[in-house]
Amino acid sequence: MENLIEIKKQEHRLTKKGKETRSRIVAAAAKLMFERGVAGTSVEDVQREAKVSASQLYHYFKEKRELVLAVIVYQTECVLNAQEPLLSHLDSMEALQTWRDAIVQVQIERKCQGGCAIGSLVSELADTEPAARTELASAFVQWEHSIRRGLRAMHERGEMRADGDPDSLALALLAALQGGLLLTQVRRETSPLEAGLDAMIAHIRSFMV
């Protein structure tokens, strides 16, 4: 965690041009790591993809671990921003259905390849890189909180029964999403993702008054 804080401090101190170069490096690394995995992406690969010199790359990232942490932050922002404004207004059953349809459509457009840009990093990093695991956990917490806000809004408005637990339902919906994305990636069809999300949305609907 201290390492990540220091990386963010360094980013804040960069000039406009420096920030643009750093962003280009991180975007290139994120693209390659999503396509090839972390282990399958070398620093030299990133250097070529970003079209920067070795000295430029090492000026911003002293080692690959620092670059990986930056990629996690980048992918988290990309995933959550791509779901806006839907994700920030999941406060009705109609909004949940629209969000579900949008997620499924993305997988159709990707031909069910790649899975989740955040989740795909977990299998490689969670058990071997503590700092990366912490940052990945934070990413999923942000996602969960976005879902939770909408469910809590319905609960607070009295549209959800008192025994409905928005926090538990939000976590379960995110778990269904992640499991569905994984199986969709393996099977190259969206039916697992659709089944998982539909089951959870139906479960949430059962608590509506």
General description of the model:
With 209 residues, the protein is mainly α. It has two domains: 1-61, Homeodomain-like (Arc Repressor Mutant, subunit A), CATH 1.10.10; 69-209, Tetracycline Repressor, domain 2, CATH 1.10.357.10. It has ten helices and no strands. It has helices spanning 2-12, 16-36, 43-50, 54-60, 64-82, 93-109, 119-125, 130-156, 166-187, 191-205. The chain is elongated, with a radius of gyration of 19 Å. The mean pLDDT is 93. Residues 42-61 bind DNA. Keywords: DNA-binding, Transcription, Transcription regulation. Residues 19-79 form the HTH tetR-type domain.
Overall average residue pLDDT: 93
CATH architecture of the largest domain: Orthogonal Bundle
Structural class by sheet pairing and helices? mainly alpha
Strand percent estimate: under 5%
Tally of helical runs:
10
State the total count of DSSP E strands.
0
Distance between the termini: 43 Å
The name CATH uses for the topology of the largest domain is: Tetracycline Repressor, domain 2
Radius of gyration over alpha carbons? 19 Å
Keywords: DNA-binding, Transcription, Transcription regulation
Domain HTH tetR-type: 19-79
Protein name: TetR family transcriptional regulator
DNA-binding region: 42-61
How does the SSE layout of this entry go?
Layout: H1 2-12, H2 16-36, H3 43-50, H4 54-60, H5 64-82, H6 93-109, H7 119-125, H8 130-156, H9 166-187, H10 191-205
Helix pairs in contact: 2-3, 2-5, 5-8, 6-10, 7-8, 8-9, 9-10
